Every structure is written in C-alpha cells, then in structure tokens.
Amino acid sequence: MSDFFNSIGLGFLDPGILILVLFALFIVVLILVITDISGRKKLERRLDQLTSGTDGESLEDTMLKIFREYAGLHKVLDRNTQDIDDIYDRLQTVIQKVGIVKYNAFRKMGGQMSSALVLLDENDDGVLINNVQGMDGGGYSYLKIIKDGKADVELSKEEAEALDKALLYGRNNK
Questions:
Q1: Strand partners, 116
Q2: Which pTM does this prediction carry?
C-alpha cells in the first residue's frame, strides 16, 4: 500500500493514520445519517399528526369541508346582497320626509285647527294633504300631487311652508 502512496506523491502518509482518519470520517458520516433519519422520522410523525385529525379526519378532508362551507357562505352573502339591494329599491318609494304646518284658515277661528301635511319619498315625490277646518264645524280636505319636490298646482303660503319642511326633513340631523 505504501507503494501506491509513493506513486501518487503521498508517501509521507502512514497507512495507520490514514485508516484512523477514514474511520473518523466514517463515524462522522454515520452520525449525520442517523441525525438525518431521526429528523425525517420526526417530520413524518408531524406530517401524520397534521394530516389526521383527532377523529380520523385528514387535513385534505378538513380543507375540502372548509371550501364547501366557504362556497355556501358566498351564496348566502350573494343572496343577502341582493336582498339588501331589493330593500333599498323599495325604500326609495317609502315615505321618508314629512312636513306639517298647523294654521288658522279663518281669522275669527282660533286653535289652529287647519293643517297642511306633506309626505315625500326619497325622490321628493308624494302628496300634500290640506285639511281646512270651517267655522261651522265642517271641513274640507284637498290633495295635491308633489313630483320632484314641486306641486302640480299652486300652493298656499302654509302648503309651501309644509313642503319646504318636508324637503329639508332630516338634513339638519345628518
């Protein structure tokens, strides 16, 4: 063996030392392999724990269940969004603004028994109801149509005031 070392220029190496060095390298490699195997086994145990639930349910099954639930929730969200849009569309035509003015229709009559009432939706469409209380105890009611905040006929001072109140309704609270 020393002839081999001499032929490659390593004749100064003692074969015994070389065997010790190789044995030490073998031990180091053996320790690395054992450490690697131990690490892989730990990783496999963790992966097994991750992929199997306490009731035997795997991670894949759990994820598929979550995706199905998400799809169901998404359908509910879409339905709720549509319902809210429908409600909003209906609310536009619901009475949202009110204006009322009480007044005396006749000078000799007290107590402000007459009134002008305006009921408007979001688009300022609605009606004006004027109830005029007569001096003899009888009365009359008049109905006027309001479209885009304007009456279809001329308004009295009290009716115009009630319309202005309705048009401003809620703006002071915002």
A1: 101, 130
A2: 0.54
